[in-house]
Amino acid sequence: MEFTIGGRLEVRITPADVGKRVSVRRRTDSGGTGVEFTDVVGVLTSWNDGVVSITRKSGESVHIVESSLVAGKVVPAAPARRRGPAASFEELAAVTARAWQPVESEALGDWRLRAAGGFTRRANSVLPLGDPGLPLGEAFGRVRRWYEERGLPAYVQTATGAEGAQELLCAELERHGWRREVSAEVRIAALAPVGDRAAEVSAVRLTREPDAAWLARYQRFSTPGPHVLRVLDSGPSVWFATAPGSGDAPDAIGRCVVDGRWAGFMAVEVAPEQRRRGLATTVMTALARRALDEGASAAWLQVEEDNEGARALYDGMGFTGHHRYHHYRSA
After folding, report:
1. 174 with 246, same domain?
2. What is the maximum alpha-carbon separation in the chain?
């Protein structure tokens, strides 16, 4: 990253640039081996009392003493995608939310408070798209009370790493004592190459509801309650895939929600003893072909950052990162 003008390093950012994407270079103490420099790129979220705070694409907050800055400038948003579908954060946030709906929800301004008996953080967290209609401190208090009344921990779901995402909100959550607990990546791809893979899908059964066999492989509970089934059944056009096995539970399962041009893949699970046999690919291919029949052309999915096996699988299918989302929990 070039910081110089006429060969001189310059700090060309000010507190007025809060909310913009910046690149800075700071001086660091290398422990007796001399001065070293570190670059940080992200959204400038605050500049107060001599401390500059930047939120990286990963969601990590970096706090820099102002006197250690040696260079800095405002930089454009991340480059546009070079392959796969074009999509804004606002579009994907709405699509992913419709694919995993809560049992109960309530508006707080433009925010949506969601609950489903504690089944998954996604269905039991605030979706803060817009203005809550209150100062943030008051809004966070309302959120805490709403979840306390339901015997649930209070979570807020945020996103970073895309134009229009929520780095400023992440910083405010941290300032009010909320802590980032789990992060995952939203990935997107063209749908046709997923459906065109050379997978033998004739044995895969597609249904509109999860049957007992599907639920036996979905390892999120011992006995699913009605709130679990309501979440799983939610979405514009929902399909469940089952690759049968020799026992009571199938070898592999998956879920797909078709919503306009988008097909969202989730709950792709394979029996441990059947892994590395291409069953996850088979299930996703069968679901992708059904979604193509319904007119979808783009695909999305979510994968946690530490799931290396799934990330490698999705890399091979052409999925690339769009943004990251995080769940912040009230302290």
Report:
1. no
2. 71
| Both structure tokens of 282 | 């088979």
229 and 200: one domain? yes
41-82 pLDDT, tens digit per residue, is 888 888 988 889 888 887 888 898 888 888 888 888 766 555
Total count of domains within the chain: 3
Give the Cα separation of 174 and 75 in Å (integer).
Answer: 25
Query: Which structure tokens are listed for 211?
Result: 């049957």
Interatomic CA distance for residues 72 and 75, integer angstroms: 9
Q: What's the rounded Cα separation, in Å, for the pair 259 and 263?
A: 6
Which H or E element spans position 62?
Answer: strand 61-65
Question: What is the Cα–Cα distance from 189 to 88, expressed in whole angstroms?
Answer: 14
Length of the chain equals 331
Tokens of 134: 């209150």
Q: Are residues 198 and 262 in the same domain?
A: yes
pLDDT tens track for 255-299:
999 999 999 999 999 999 988 899 999 999 999 999 999 999 999
Does any domain span residue 19? yes
- Name residue, tokens 């009571």: 248
Q: Buried (b) or exposed (e) across 18-51, using 16+ Cβ within 10 A?
A: beebbbbbbbeeeeeeeeeeeebebbbbbbeeee
Q: Which two tokens stand for residue 154?
A: 């209070």
Q: Do 124 and 164 belong together in one domain?
A: yes
Range 262-265 contact pairs with CB under 8 angstroms and sequence separation of 24 or more: 262/95, 262/296, 262/298, 262/299, 262/300, 263/191, 263/287, 263/288, 263/291, 263/292, 263/296, 263/298, 263/299, 263/300, 264/95, 264/96, 264/99, 264/235, 264/299, 264/300, 264/301, 265/299, 265/300, 265/301
The token pair at 315 is 């890399």
| Each residue's pLDDT tens digit, 128-148 | 999 999 999 999 999 999 999
Beta carbons within 8 Å of 79's beta carbon, 6+ residues apart: none
